[in-house]
Amino acid sequence: MSNLSDLNIIKIGGNVIDDPAKLETFLEKFAALPGKKILVHGGGKIATRIASDLGLEAKMVDGRRITDAEMLKVVTMVYAGLTNKSVVANLQKYGCDAIGLSGADGNAIKAVKRPVREIDYGFAGDILADSVNGHAIRRFLESGFTPVFSAITHNGSGQLLNTNADTIASALAVGLASSYNVSLLYCFEKDGVLLDVNDNTSVIEVIKKADFTSLKEKHIVHEGMIPKLQNAFDAINKGVRSVFIGNADNLHLYQQQKFGTRLTD
Amino acid sequence: MSNLSDLNIIKIGGNVIDDPAKLETFLEKFAALPGKKILVHGGGKIATRIASDLGLEAKMVDGRRITDAEMLKVVTMVYAGLTNKSVVANLQKYGCDAIGLSGADGNAIKAVKRPVREIDYGFAGDILADSVNGHAIRRFLESGFTPVFSAITHNGSGQLLNTNADTIASALAVGLASSYNVSLLYCFEKDGVLLDVNDNTSVIEVIKKADFTSLKEKHIVHEGMIPKLQNAFDAINKGVRSVFIGNADNLHLYQQQKFGTRLTD
């Protein structure tokens, strides 16, 4: 048993952000979760809608946004401004002492502009190893604040960068794994990793690293889950204690150890 | 002499925010200023332009913005998102460990929605006495961070509020006056309080409280300066050590005690 204190890092995506009632319920449950915690939120559809209202066309390649200079302004406004501050104000309402952060704030997370190969993703940020400023984030956590990260980082030279929220959550988890017993919770639209993708009651409770290889080989888990699980086990290999994959609506079940699928060593 | 350490609170407005070259130069000088400091920035014209691009009409009464629900989204996006994070990323570039905050973050500044009398200002926030959370802001300052406040606050019940940046700066100064030797610097387009409003070299170096009454009676200072000076002396009456009024371009002269006009007890 380690002497480190527990830290839960929870990532929510568009299916929560875009649904005001679902978001409100989630934030109340998140606020009620005891102990040290960090929230990471993705963007949702608001940025795309506002970009469109401003006459900008959303350019996507393989599901990834191309972030030109104008689109960077929009995602910075929406993710780090509108969404982040609304989430923080609502958490404060529920008694959670949240502070909204981008990677630039406190130099918390640095990234590099994605190198141009076949595709120029524009101002998209890739997080390198050791880019998480554990010292700064520990200062927030140890002061009693709950950091709420939007999916915007910086390169340290004044450039903001649009960065995948899943990647931010996992980089934070790995970067803080030497200071805390980190559990990483990915919220998505299903109740967990399903044995039968069409049956939301077929949640697999625990997947151990050794099981994963066998599940892959036997094609038991759905193809689309493989990269998510791979990323989760990568984080576990780098010191994260557990990764959970489940439904934001069920966050209140986490303390009863009944939240989604637990991935572990 | 008090044993409190010094704290400089500097407010910049639209004339700096709207001019990228001027802003860049200012941020470099701000970053170079030693000791504890807080930056407060107003909005500038970007919010009005983006609102207009989104088909919203800016409604002003007596120079004050009417903030309906849609306009609140725009100012939250622009002030707390685009402007705040750009400023923070640029300060980080110059080695200043900035964190961007709204009043919701860390529950730093609460406000109340302005009561509707003749005019309904919408989601405009008024800061009441004791609305500054000195405990939270001290935690940021003592951790070595430089807070950068946008002109957005909250009411503690989940509602964000558009709030005058001059008022935020002065509320912070008064709220922190028992913990620090606070100097409050208002940057505007002139080099200081002028004896002759058409002569930028006619800066009055020091105005003491007793002088102010006489300057008012003799109509020596320009009519438009009276409310600014009145607010400054109100802050001084509430424990702020000095208030300076000067030009952002001259911030580098502050350490040589040559910045603008100094108002003092």
UniProtKB/TrEMBL annotation, chains A, B:
Family the UniProt entry places it in: Belongs to the acetylglutamate kinase family. ArgB subfamily.
Predominant place of localization: cytoplasm
Protein name per UniProt: Acetylglutamate kinase
Recorded catalytic activity of this chain's protein: N-acetyl-L-glutamate + ATP = N-acetyl-L-glutamyl 5-phosphate + ADP
Subcellular location field: Cytoplasm
Site (Transition state stabilizer) location in chain: 11, 228
Protein EC: 2.7.2.8
Role this protein plays: Catalyzes the ATP-dependent phosphorylation of N-acetyl-L-glutamate.
Residue ranges of domain Aspartate/glutamate/uridylate kinase in the record: 8-247
Pfam families on file: AA_kinase
Highest taxon in the source lineage: Bacteria
Keyword Nucleotide-binding: yes
Keyword set, alphabetical order: Amino-acid biosynthesis, Arginine biosynthesis, ATP-binding, Cytoplasm, Kinase, Nucleotide-binding, Transferase
Pathway: Amino-acid biosynthesis; L-arginine biosynthesis; N(2)-acetyl-L-ornithine from L-glutamate: step 2/4
